[in-house]
Write a structure and sequence with these properties.
This protein is mainly β. 13% of the residues lie in helices and 35% in strands.
Length: 85
Amino acid sequence: MMENLGLKLSADQGWAKIYRVSENSYLGLVDEKRGMNSFSEEKLVEVKFDLQDPQSWEEYLKNTLADSVRTERTFRDLGGYLFRF
């Protein structure tokens, strides 16, 4: 999924993967068995990106992740996490 968003993997520690979001921003994904929070059906995280051109991203997401896009500039990934652009 991160490849669909165009994020580059910066570090892969096996149980944690860190993606570069911008020049000064990173998004870390951690295996729930090793992280400090346990798995939860109700997701505790919402990821938001502030974009200069959200309309283009909305079109990209609809074309790339059509089944996941819920509303304008919002989608849930396969793990159920909410992303807003």
